[in-house]
Specification:
Distance between the termini: 53 Å
Helix content: 25-40%
Largest sheet: 14 strands, mixed
Number of strands: 19
Number of domains: 3
Structural class: alpha+beta
């Protein structure tokens, strides 16, 4: 990618053909080492320029939504509404650099699905790989924070009786109220039905349980059946959490501090008297590493701590101060196919 072409794009001076080239680069190459280096070069060149006060989160949400609509229309109707996206970036090269960094770590997919009414519906699927988090806006204005290793599938436009989403992994939702069109998050055989509220759903494929945590409003946890019907299992109030056991098909609830389970969206990990096994699983996903607990005695250790944007080594050093443990980091290595293994951390009892 020519850096001058990127500069022209950020200043809204590209031809339609050049815009297509930039979009292809962001989709296929921007996340590579060379792509990130190029973005850093642009960042460094504008580092000392004055930037106007901007609501970055709101602008990023708008960009995500415009990309959803524009890319879907491009693929299925051949018409792309790009001008609105570039207007958002016009004159703000440094702002553009800030906004596009999160886009490098997510993937967007669009496809048709046939529905019962005989209509074609365009679905969007957003994935956030391990080691990253992203936020975006749904077509109805609802806000979503997608945690590492998670995927959310939803229609580009909500039509019909319900606003239906499909989640794998973890997400925090701030849902726009619409009494006439409830929203349902489907995951692991259950549904979370809401009108307008704030809640968190954790439903990773390799976890035994699905956890639904309510921060405000009210949600109903439903059992979903193959014929399309559903049955309410439990209704949550704020600061309550439902735990659904996928194997036993059982559900229970408990009173909790919702902040502990939703703070990840703000870059914080909160642990309150939690066992080391749970903590290491969260850190594995948070930092995209493999963690091995070498000694069985480690399972007896519990921790109370809050981590805010610390690096992996900083977190491990703090745990090492609190308890008698040692850790060893094994760097990732390159495989024959050009990919890399994940970094590994081995934790053992300090002798």
């Amino acid at each position: 990618m020519d850096i001058e072409l990127l500069k022209r794009y950020f200043s809204n001076n590209c031809t339609p053909e050049e815009v297509d080239e930039v979009f292809r680069w962001f989709k296929n190459n921007a996340g590579s080492l060379g792509g990130r280096s190029l973005m850093k070069q642009i960042w460094d060149e504008v580092e000392n320029r004055e930037v106007k006060e901007v609501d970055f989160e709101n602008m990023l949400n708008k960009i995500h939504h415009r990309i959803n609509v524009a890319e879907a229309e491009k693929e299925f109707s051949g018409k792309v509404a790009r001008k609105g996206l570039q207007v958002l970036l016009n004159g703000f090269m440094k702002v553009a650099a800030i906004l596009f960094i999160p886009l490098l770590v997510i993937s967007l997919n669009f496809y048709y699905t046939k529905v019962n009414e005989g209509k074609d519906v365009i679905y969007s699927e957003i994935s956030s790989p391990f080691g990253s988090r992203t936020s975006f806006e749904l077509p109805d204005g609802s806000k979503v924070w997608l945690n590492n290793g998670s995927t959310l599938r939803f229609p580009v436009r909500f039509n019909g009786k319900y606003r239906e989403l499909e989640l794998t992994g973890e997400a925090y939702f701030d849902i726009a109220h619409n009494e006439k069109q409830p929203l349902i998050v489907k995951t692991g055989g259950i549904g979370v039905k809401v009108l307008g509220t704030k809640f968190n759903v954790m439903s990773y494929a390799d976890d035994q349980n699905i956890e639904v945590t309510l921060k405000s409003g009210k949600v109903a946890i439903q059992k979903l059946f193959k014929n399309g019907s559903s049955k309410n299992l439990i209704v949550l109030k704020p600061d309550q959490q439902a735990v659904f056991n996928k194997k036993e098909k059982s559900i229970k609830y408990r009173n909790i501090n919702a902040e502990k389970y939703t703070s990840w969206k703000d870059g914080k990990l909160i642990f309150i008297n939690d066992p080391i096994d749970l903590i290491m699983k969260r850190l594995e996903r948070w930092f995209n590493v493999d963690i091995v607990l070498k000694d069985k005695e480690l399972s007896n250790f519990t921790y109370t701590a809050t981590f805010t944007d610390e690096q992996l080594t900083q977190v491990l050093n703090l745990l090492q101060v609190a308890t008698p443990i040692n850790y060893k980091i094994i760097p990732s290595r390159k495989l024959k196919d050009g990919s890399y293994t994940r970094q590994k951390v081995i934790i053992s009892i300090k002798k």
